[in-house]
Amino acid sequence: MSGSSYVAVDWGTSSFRLWQMNAGGQVLGERRSDQGMTVAAKTGFASVLQSHLDALGGPADLPVVICGMAGARQGWVEAGYLDTPAHLSDILSAAVVVSGQPRDIRILPGIAQRDAAAPDVMRGEETQLLGALGLDAAREALVCMPGTHSKWVRVRGGMVEGFATFMTGELFSAVVRDTILSHAVAEADEAVDADAFGAAVAEAFAAPALSANLLFRVRARQLLFAGSAQAARETISGTLIGVELAAGLAEREHATPVTLIASGRLQRLYQIALERLSIPFNVMDAEEAVRRGLASAATAIWKN
Amino acid sequence: MSGSSYVAVDWGTSSFRLWQMNAGGQVLGERRSDQGMTVAAKTGFASVLQSHLDALGGPADLPVVICGMAGARQGWVEAGYLDTPAHLSDILSAAVVVSGQPRDIRILPGIAQRDAAAPDVMRGEETQLLGALGLDAAREALVCMPGTHSKWVRVRGGMVEGFATFMTGELFSAVVRDTILSHAVAEADEAVDADAFGAAVAEAFAAPALSANLLFRVRARQLLFAGSAQAARETISGTLIGVELAAGLAEREHATPVTLIASGRLQRLYQIALERLSIPFNVMDAEEAVRRGLASAATAIWKN
Question: Is A212 in contact with B177 (Cβ distance < 8 A)?
Answer without folding.
Answer: no
